[in-house]
Structure formats: structure tokens, C-alpha cells
Amino acid sequence: MLNVDKKTIINFDSNMLNKHKTTIRLISILMFIAGVLCLSFPFVSGDIISIIVGILLICAGLALMVGLFTHRQHNFWPVVGGFLVAIAYLLIGYFFLRAPEVGIFAIAAFLAGLFCVGGIIRLMGWYRFRHVKGSWLQLIIGILDILIAWLFLGATPLMSVTMVSTLVGIELVISAVSLFSFSQLFAKS
């Protein structure tokens, strides 16, 4: 998600952003269309999401290997550890490409873990600052995060695909609207 406020905008060069205003708008429109398609066709977009993640994992594995061998020091074990991580990235990416259905379930399990950890952290934050005004929001969001994690873990395979595609679609739509409004701010200045 794009988080842009006036403080962030001031740090940007306005000439550069005015020059790329149409590109920013085009990207936001494409993101919006992709988000609507994810929401409209969850099963097809679930496979596409899995394939994209697989390609990104393979690219990350290759980049890690190249970085390891071009910038290595005379330390043996960090290179071995990095090489093993790169191999893991390549294998996981390959499995995501070969079986996108399994890949989307792995993404759903990963998201469930993230929501669970996020919910626990928010509950701990609420408990620590429960005397502060407005801390009850941390409690509510923490409970909702754990509930969403439970829904991800307890869902059927079809529901897992739908939930991941819906989450990605909503994220794309919100980011597209944020990016488009970001480009509008520079049109006024």
C-alpha cells in the first residue's frame, strides 16, 4: 500500500514528478484494472499471482547468487548460507511455477502466519498501553487479525484461493487510488 503524506511529497523533485505524471497515472490505472480483475476472477488470478510470485522468487534467487559471488569476502560460511537461501528461493519459485495451485495455498498459509503475528503484536501493544486513550483500537485490530488468520488456516482450498485473490485485489485497488490521488497533487502544484 502506498502511504504518501505532505511530508513525503515535499522530498520529491516536482519537475521529475511532473515529467512522469502520465506514467504514474497509467500505472495507477493498470493497478486498478488488475485489482478489479482479481476481485472478479479469483481462481484465474490466484494462478497468476502464484506464477508472478514464483518468477519473483526465481529472480531473487538468481540475484542473490550473483551478489554472493561478485561481492563475496573471504568468509566461507556466510557465502554457503547465502547460497543455500538462493537455492531455496529457486526451488520454491520453481514449485510455484510448476504447480500454481499449491503455490497459492502456500501464499495463504504465509498470509495466515503474518496476520497471526500481527494480531499478537497488536494485542501485546494494547496490553502494554491499555491506559492510553484510544488503545482499544489495538485490541480490536489484534482480535480481527487473529480471526482473519484463523479463517485463512481453516478455509477450504477454494476459499483460500478466493481469500488471497480478494486480498490482493483490494490492495491493488486501494494502492491504485492512492497513486492516482498522488499524481493529482502534483498536477495542482
TrEMBL record:
<protein>
    <submittedName>
        <fullName>Membrane transporter, H-NS repressed HdeD protein</fullName>
    </submittedName>
</protein>
<dbReference type="InterPro" id="IPR052712">
    <property type="entry name" value="Acid_resist_chaperone_HdeD"/>
</dbReference>
<dbReference type="Pfam" id="PF03729">
    <property type="entry name" value="DUF308"/>
</dbReference>
<feature type="transmembrane region" description="Helical">
    <location>
        <begin position="136"/>
        <end position="153"/>
    </location>
</feature>
<keyword id="KW-0472">Membrane</keyword>
<dbReference type="InterPro" id="IPR005325">
    <property type="entry name" value="DUF308_memb"/>
</dbReference>
<feature type="transmembrane region" description="Helical">
    <location>
        <begin position="48"/>
        <end position="69"/>
    </location>
</feature>
<keyword id="KW-0812">Transmembrane</keyword>
<keyword id="KW-1133">Transmembrane helix</keyword>
<feature type="transmembrane region" description="Helical">
    <location>
        <begin position="76"/>
        <end position="97"/>
    </location>
</feature>
<dbReference type="GO" id="GO:0005886">
    <property type="term" value="C:plasma membrane"/>
</dbReference>
<feature type="transmembrane region" description="Helical">
    <location>
        <begin position="159"/>
        <end position="182"/>
    </location>
</feature>
<feature type="transmembrane region" description="Helical">
    <location>
        <begin position="24"/>
        <end position="42"/>
    </location>
</feature>
<feature type="transmembrane region" description="Helical">
    <location>
        <begin position="103"/>
        <end position="124"/>
    </location>
</feature>
